[in-house]
Amino acid sequence: MVRHISYGIIGCGMMGQEHLRNIALLPETSIAAIYEPDADMARIAQSFAPKAQMMDSIDALLEVENLDCLVIVSPNHCHMEQLELLAERRPLPVLVEKPLFTDPDDIQRLNHFQAHYPAPVWVAMEYRYMPPVATLLSDAEAATGGIKMLTIREHRFPFLEKVGDWNRFNRYTGGTFVEKCCHFFDLMRFALKAEPVRIMASGAMDANHLEERYEGQTPDILDNGYVIVDFNNGTRAMLELCMFAEGSRYQEEISAVGPDGKIEALVPGPGRFWPEHLGTPPIPQVIVSPRSPKGPHLREIPVDPTILDAGDHNGSTFYQHQGFLDLVRGNRESPDVTLEDGKRAVQMGLAAQRSITEKRVVEMSEFA
User: Fold this and answer.
1) How far apart are CA 170 and CA 182, in angstroms?
2) Distance between CA 195 and CA 364 in Å, rounded?
3) Helices in the chain by DSSP H: which ranges?
4) CA neighbours within 13 Å on the CB side: how many for 159?
5) 265 in helix, strand or coil?
6) Side-chain half-sphere exposure of 341, counting CA atoms within 13 A
7) What is the pLDDT of residues 263-291, one digit of tens each?
8) Predicted TM-score (pTM) of this structure
């Protein structure tokens, strides 16, 4: 018999609600308790999990007896403190949204947590699980003969509105290349099977949020940029981010190239943003282009509509939760995305932010 798993959720804004919708698709699961301090978000969250207890504090949530695991989906700058609270009060298995932390000064705190937390921690890096991206990752070695160059392009919509407008300010997000792009730095490390050595980046705030003011404060988040990364095995990767390009057919375009050929993944953005007058949203694609014999081979990678409708990440949140559920039930020994993975992705984002601010190449040894 499959063991029923009860979840506690910390934070149920836009992304937290996506987690609720995807957990609801998993067999023998339920949401036991939710902590969401914003009244409007709490009401929406309860509509997705009507049987959940709505708690007025994390301390109260941790006193709910039948919790099997926790999911942290609070604003970025809260993650480290909340993980430390769990370690002190109730160290259950936890799925924590990226980024793990936002400030270089938090690295030592995370190292201590990592060394002493007794339960498994899975860092939520949804992009690994997008079906076209997962296909690229699994087929890249055969298609390329070993990746030498990896390019990730994300052309997308601006940052959405969040409760309290926290995502408009670097001090809460860690900066755009931490908040938004640690996903991509995680993909680079995972695909290249190597560690970053140095990072060079250029970025700016050119189009979005320029006229916005929040209690007299001007947003300082970047909306575009390039990042080049050298890895310790001689490979290199590049990220191109533009957050005023929502008119694009595909939101993410990833290409991996090696001595034998190229493989690409094309991923559309959220279906709810696709204009009705353009008809059916695009289907994800994977394209393999061998050097010999020449001729690209295109495969469509459709996603189950029910899973697709449960979130904005091409079905990936569901597949991620399948893996986390197996971990909680004891059907696997370790998470796919570890605390070490999450830490290194943030360090790369911090290095990119520093490179842009200080206009220099940043060595990853600066974040040891």
Assistant:
1) 14
2) 9
3) 14-23, 39-48, 58-62, 79-89, 107-116, 131-144, 170-173, 176-179, 182-192, 305-309, 316-328, 339-358
4) 28
5) strand
6) 23
7) 999 999 998 989 999 999 999 999 999 99
8) 0.96
